[in-house]
Amino acid sequence: MHTRSLADSMKSLRRAALMLALAGLVGAFTASSSATSADEERGLEIAQEADQRDTGWGDQQADLEMILRNSHGEESTRKLRNRTLEMEDDGDQLLVIFDIPRDVKGTAFLTYTHKTGPDDQWLYLPALKRVKRIASNNKSGPFMGSEFAYEDLASQELEKYTYRYLRDETFEGFDCFVVERVPTDESSGYTRQLVWYDKEEYRPEKVEFYDRKDELLKTLTYKNYQQYLDQYWRADQLFMENHQTGKSTVLNWKQYEFRVGLTERDFDQNSLKRAR
């Protein structure tokens, strides 16, 4: 009787210990889930604030200088123009036209960004005198030999990502929120991106891009912001560095103009062929 009673007591103790361990695991999981949910909510709020502050500019155009650098530091330069139309119920429309050098003169690129689903993108090649549609599974490819992918040129609509706040961090003197965003498009070339948002103006200061193996692929930094229309911030320079190849691309923006009267007709497929 005494032996059986002792055995029963040991079983009861083991059961109690197991129940306590399970309760601890459930509690830890619940706490972790709550923390994750709060971080996701905060990340979305930061992204929403950044989006709201850059809404309402209407249309814009600018001149650009694109500098391509290979892994040996050798450079080539291109001149191009950018036109963008803000859409009320969808993502932005973008037209890029190359002017210099001669071998790319007249090349034009058109993007219709969508809040959900794949974007529509076309490239006009004057040598072939035809418009080529960019397939969804090719949008991770390099744009005109640069370190910018086709998908990097689309407007960064809120609905294209899920978000998670990671931490506060200082970057080049700016106090920033660091937010992880994960593309919802399965054909994206990225598993995730980390964005450094300036806490005061909610401008992106830096973006890290991670490839499909979740390894750091590229870093984009924004430099020399200027304010337009007393509200909207635009960087004078975008620097994209590819850490895996040693190549980089600099985009220098000049002559920003806003509300110049661009319409949807300036962004139809015929605009690719008539771009001058």
Structural commentary:
With 276 residues, this protein is α+β, with helices and mostly antiparallel strands. The protein has one domain (53-274): outer membrane lipoprotein receptor (LolB), chain A, CATH 2.50.20.10. The chain is 21% helix and 42% strand. The protein has two helices and 13 strands. Strands 6-5-4-3-2-1-13-12-11-10-9-8-7 form a 13-stranded antiparallel beta sheet. A hairpin with a 3-residue loop joins strand 11 (216-228) and strand 12. The longest helix has 52 residues, at 2-53. The N and C termini lie far apart (100 Å). The mean pLDDT is 88.
Topology:
Elements: H1 2-53, E1 59-69, E2 75-85, E3 93-100, E4 108-112, E5 120-125, E6 130-133, E7 161-171, E8 174-183, E9 192-198, E10 204-210, E11 216-228, E12 232-242, E13 248-258, H2 270-274
Antiparallel strand pairs: 1-2, 1-13, 2-3, 3-4, 4-5, 5-6, 7-8, 8-9, 9-10, 10-11, 11-12, 12-13
What's the gist of this structure?
The protein has two helices and 13 strands.
Structural descriptors:
276 residues; alpha+beta; outer membrane lipoprotein receptor (LolB), chain A
> What low-confidence regions span 5 or more consecutive residues with pLDDT below 50?
none
Beta-strand fraction estimate: 35-45%
H/E element sequence: HEEEEEEEEEEEEEH
- Distinct helical segment count: 2
Instruction: Tell me the overall shape.
Output: globular
How big is the Rg? 25 Å
The count of strands amounts to 13
Mean pLDDT: 88
